[in-house]
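Reminder to self: keep the SMILES exactly as supplied, no canonicalising. Ligand is adenosine-5'-triphosphate.
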Amino acid sequence: MVNTQTPLKAESKDLNFFYASGHQALKSVSMPIYENKITALIGPSGCGKSTYLRCFNRMHDLYPGNKYEGQIIMHPDNTNILEHGVDAIEVRMRISMVFQKPNPFPKSIFENVAYGLRVRGETNKRTVADKVEEALKGAALWNEVKDRQQDLAFNLSGGQQQRLCIARALATDPEIMLFDEPTSALDPIATANIEELMSELRHKLTILVVTHNMQQAARISDYTAYMYLGEMMEYGDTDTIFTRPARKETEDYITGKFG
Amino acid sequence: MAVQTTQTQASVLNNLDAVRAMIRRHKRNDILFAAVGLIALMIGLLTLLTLFIQLVSDGYPRFNLQFFSDFPSRRPGSAGILTAWVGSLLVMLVTFFTAVPVGVGAGVYLEEYAPKNLFSDLIEINVSNLAGVPSIIYGLLALGLFVYGLGLGQSILTAGLTLGLLILPVVIVSTREAIRGIPVAIREAAYAVGATKWQVVSDHIVKYSQGGILTGIIIGMSRAIGETAPIITIGALTFIAFLPPSPISDVAPYLNFEWLSSGFTVLPIQMFNWLSRPDHAFHINAAATGAIIIVVTLLMNGTAIYLRYKIRKNIKW
Ligand SMILES: Nc1ncnc2c1ncn2[C@@H]1O[C@H](COP(=O)(O)OP(=O)(O)OP(=O)(O)O)[C@@H](O)[C@H]1O
Ligand SMILES: [Mg+2]
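Structure tokens returned for the bound complex:
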């Protein structure tokens, strides 16, 4: 499944991952991530979707004993972001993440979005305020919070909090955004909001999203990867995967016969 | 058919009776336990209350401003606790500036930076055990280390350092507990935007655990303020008729550290001193001092609870 028109943003090559316990959670996963596209990861619980996603911002580095093997190459600079010489912080500045449950800081709405800029040493008040506004608009939250940016983030609803987390991840102009089941804690309306937002965001950046919801994967993604027991079983453009999957297992999973 | 229905109905009803009887039985245990718990609680509270009332009623004649502003004296009627409360205050000041930076620093380091291995496990066990070491042992340690070893003498500095050491485990443990209460998701959120470890610690970890850390500090201090054994061991004076030099001076740099090496006494020692006099009139002074120590301790604990509530109010997890 090689696509020659769309440029690659990243690709994983023979990626193995071992948790500190010795458990191998990823087995030789190779996959392209195309620029300005949404790539969805699907598969039964425990198959390694989150593990794979969290390799991209080196989240596993936070816990001692975890081990990566293989490569994740980022384009256009051809950096292998798993290499020892590449600082995890540099990687996280290029690739941001939105988690399953909204996890705003116990700070004001404004400070939540501004935090990524503060970390980068941005001190100009004007620049920060402009960036925050831009990010809140990008996350379709501006209209709801523009008059109460100094309120605590916890006072927002769950869906608003998740959009706040998207704004926080957006404020630093990442090249790739990772979403780990971003709507699983939300009601259908908030879910629809976030899905729309992701489709919109694709014009600015590249998205990798884990989802348990088949309709969601079908609705929003351009490419879909089916994982099973730590292996990449099938990868292709979403239409093909959902209408004519090459493998029986993929079809069984998508149609709900299994998983 | 009809017969069968009545039969099942009967069995359902029978069953229901049995279930209700069972629930009643279980509820009885609830009430029983609540009663036992209440009695246990009352024994504790009433003992404390009786003690407090006793002290207040005994010491009642001495509750006036004079008592706070008088030096100790051979005449019980004109003896006061001026040197004692000033001494306690200054010693607590040293204790605070010793235990807080060291304790919070150690707690943050152990939780956030220290590699998890046999060595850090060993430290962990020792810190917890340290909290259980009898306070007089700290006094002996301080006598050897601070008084003779470092030549700090029987001073406010020695006493403050000793009590600082004594409450260090409390501060370390409460710092670690408070840090552990921060959800992994918040920590990961901070790292995910590209923060360094130091940024995560200073912008998040320390801020969100403030309430717990502060509570630990105040509870430690309220324990330290009533400590007597280690202070006697290092040789605090039991009768002292002068104040230490003032920490604030009227010439630049306006601070004065001579008080650190001054002799001193503290509230519980003053109380102990008066109690050991045969003259009953001194016992009134002792009771009044005891009541004051209890009030101060309760106030400190109350402040801890209040601050914890106030700081936690904005944090929901
Ligand atoms: N910290 C860990 N240590 C050891 N094994 C782990 C750890 N975290 C996850 N695993 C294991 O790695 C495998 C993949 O887990 P992962 O969380 O990536 O699954 P997932 O596909 O995201 O599942 P879900 O859909 O339920 O979120 C599972 O077998 C899991 O038990
Ligand atoms: Mg997962």
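Points to follow up:
The mean pLDDT of chain B is 88.
The radius of gyration of chain B is 27 Å.
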